[in-house]
Amino acid sequence: MKNFIKLFLGISTSFFITGDLFSQSLTLVRDAKLSLNQEDVVLSAPSVKLLDRSQIIEAEKVKLRKDSYIQLLSPDALLKTRVLKNGEKAFIQVGIGSKADIVIVNRSTSGAFSIGMETLSEAESLPFFWKVSSLNDGGADGIVDLQFSWNKNSEPLDFHLKSLMSREGVDWLMEYDQEIQDTTVYLKSFSFKESTPIAFTISTNRLDSDEDGVPDIIEIREGTDPKDPNDYLDTDGDKVPDYIENIQNTNPLDPISYLDSNQDGVSDYVRDRSPIMFINLSNVQIPWGFSGIDTVLPDSLIAVLGSGKIINMNIIWDKSNLDIFKRGVYDVSGNFELSPGLFDAYQIPSNIQVEVLPKPAPEDIHLSNNVFDAEKSGNEVVIGSFTVLDPFDDQHNTQLSGLAFDNVYFEIRDGVLFWSPEDRADGDTRFRILVSVQDRDGNILEKEFTIIRNRMSVSDIEIVNTFTPNGDGMNDTWGVRELRFYTGVTLQVFERSGERVFYTQNPDVRWDGTFNNIELPVGTYYWTVKVGETGEIRRGILNLLRK
């Protein structure tokens, strides 16, 4: 048998009803609960009203006239769904003064959900909001798809940019994973945190999170990222969003149709987001060799955009052509980093002039040793090394100053002075050289040095008395090379008969034991050495042997 109920007032207990329930109207007050959780139980009524803390359990089983809805006239009244399996949905018609449709699709494990409503007085929002919570056991999170639909007549005036908002504390925050139609909002995979009711409303929303000029809600509708200022609908590719072109009455399908107020060939949209000047670019002076250049160059630029907005822009300086070890003025170019949503339409140069100040010249040059012994072999001789006194630099180019003085007899390599003449400079024991030192800044210091060459005295020279010109490469010739550093030298060799068989004035020339290209016999010969420079004469016996 079917039950017929016309009106309930002051119900304070739960009713568990079987079969179909019909009523002309129904009002639940106080703590009344109407439970429709029996199988095949449906409540049909032209109107249903809930007051106080009353509830309808499995409210999706309520059937109303086409233009009717469940009226929640108390902020504490609730509608509860049955336990929905994954993928199941509940459809509930509810409202305060006007009808709204709520669809809940469960996307997690089985669970039930509750819906409440309150009025909202904000001018640019619907006059009501929904309170939705998960009824899962243990406060487990529930994940659902939510759909809210409302009557056009319930919208406030100027309600174009509308979106679904959820309340967090006293703030209303836009839900980004939503789809928006004229009078329907669909939120995908919303996650309830614990069992605290979440409040939702539909509100005018001009929020532009990425500041690209396109409200977030428009970007959601157009399928672009409302948090990426470079992602917006730009059908004609002129860098101006279609939304902006529609506002400015230009053609979003024509790439040369855009607002250009000052006729500079750049759209106002791009100009407003491009640097037109930098206000903290100033030239820099640094001491010679200053290695802390990065500490004096700004790491960001203060840029003025075409809109007049002032922003900081990170910059990287190209210091490849800057030589801190050479005085001069250098152009250091900067490459600034464009933040997302900015353009570089005017390519304003971001260069700084860096002046490297002159370095003081080296103060002095020292030579570790200026005396050396003559080497009879004619090989080069290491004399000493140079040290440059320079408080500011430790790298210098030290060299002989051209052919000044006696420089031709010497050589400098890696700061070391060598005696390295092709000419033996016989007769000379004191030499003057001119040395120049150049630092990395181009400063040059010249200094004169006196170099002393020691020669073995004529009386101390050991003159051998035997040689063996037999062609074995050992002791095949006779001579006195130690005399090569003296002038006026004469060397002679005589036979026992007194005939001269060898004569030279060049100490580098040696006797090979022949006379007129004829080998002389083994025997005793006599030599004389005369040094004109000192007036000394030496004589001795020379044995010629052939073994």
Automatic annotation (TrEMBL):
Coiled-coil boundaries: none
InterPro entries for this protein: T9SS_type_B, TSP_type-3_rpt
User: Which NCBIfam families does this chain map to?
Assistant: Bac_Flav_CTERM
- This protein's name: Gliding motility-associated C-terminal domain-containing protein
